[in-house]
Here is the input.
Amino acid sequence: MKLMVTNIVSDTPTVKIFTLKHPLRDTLPPPSAGAHVDVRLPDGKIRQYSLCGDPSDDSIYQIAVRREDDGRGGSRWLHDNVELGSILHVSAPRNNFPLVAGADRHIFIGGGIGITPFAAMARAAQQAGEEFIVEYCVRSKGDAPLLPALSTTCSEQQLQLWVGDLGERFRAASIGAPVAGTHIYCCGPSSLVNAVREATSDWPQDQVHFEVFAATLDENFKPEPFDMTIASTGEVLRVPADKSALDVLRGRGFIVQSSCELGVCGSCECGYSDGTVIHRDAVLSVAARQDRMLLCVSRARVAVTVDF
Ligand code: FES
Here is the structure.
């Protein structure tokens, strides 16, 4: 979709909130709490941004973008070039990080700009009357994206702010032992994500959820070639070590959706059977990995049959 920027707010010295609207239509594909959109940059590269506005409002999307001077350039371009009336190429929302329906309690743990999905998720939980708490870790109070929005949504008991400059630290160990019906969601810097992963290692995996927007690929991984059978045709394609399954499929004329090509957006997901897959994505749950894989980064040992 080509969406128009109708409002820009400097939320903190480094974070801008962009409001996007369809120039002709009153409604957009409905957002849901935890969803993100892909934004296409002028160089064709794609960036994912969580929707941080009210998930029950389908007239606009809102994204919060932290300017990363040392990043890959997307946030710099958005900060420096986008103004009121600019048109951005934006995908429909995709949700790899949904609020679990029927949970007794949600614990949202966000660090810095990783708080963005929780602005929408806390609002959805509040609207549904569900129990939740937001653990929000920031360096300083002046650099806490979406704090005003969260303070409006949450009661004092529901929002716990941890300010690093004041010596306050969220202790992941405080999560404690597994509690049936409680779901934990985490998004933020890798130090926070790793601490929460470790602290919840004895929790059932379907009660712990992570949202990751940067590739988490192991640089020491040595890719091996493998054979890929196309379930619908029986055709067997060789995936060499220096190409992805996605590259090979495209090279043979198959049309496969993709976006980030880093294993973080989920758009190249497909089914598989008859093989051992080396999962290298940051999206699929343990359960989903039994029969789903992401073609842009995941590979197979020896051979696999793919169905897309
Ligand atoms: S293209 Fe984004 S996960 Fe494969």
